[in-house]
Fold:
Amino acid sequence: QSALTQPASVSGSPGQSITISCTGTSSDFGGDNYISWYKQYPGTAPKVVIYDVNKRPSGVSNRFSGSKSGNTASLTISGLQAEDEADYYCSSRRLFGGGTKLTVL
Amino acid sequence: EVQLVESGGGLVQPGGSLRLSCAASGFSFSPYWMSWVRQAPGKGLEWVATIQGDGSESYYVDSVNRRFTISRDNAKNSLYLQMDSLRAEDTAVYYCAREDWYRFDSWGQGTLVTVSS
Structure:
């Protein structure tokens, strides 16, 4: 299986909202809702910020939200902050996306 | 607090073997599925292998199937990855991760494996 498709990079200014897309085939997404999103700072381990398409783990800011439509999942970060600058990865079951570098301008 | 601590990484020649370990603490280890996820230098995440809580079943990405073996010792709260016939493309940071319904909800700090002559 090939990795899920994510944009290589996105950017936004503080306070703005950004959306990162994650596209796969119908078999990649399997018709279930096991979609997760991970945030990773350079040189550190990833951390889950969204799971089951749109659920937030305890301690994750409500500025993070997830959705899915057809074969595309999306991560939206509202009220962008400097600390949001990181790499973001989607996953469907155990298949990861290629990652998106978020730059806060 | 959940803690996962990997060890065993290092430099190995192509064709060689290496065994990674992951020591788990802060949670009841045996019920959880556990996984290894790797990240090549400057690249994205790649799932490598997963093992059920009782160790009865395991799953692998095609590229490591029959070369890598995932195992666990629930009495020692430990997860292992035996890596044989290593290739240059196996060079990566290997993370131990707790898996809960396809969500990797806790990660170790990672251990670097470098395959080079």
Observations:
- Chain A has a mean pLDDT of 95.
- The radius of gyration of chain A is 13 Å.
- Strands of chain A lie at 9-12, 18-23, 35-40, 47-50, 64-69, 72-77, 86-92, 95-96, 100-104.
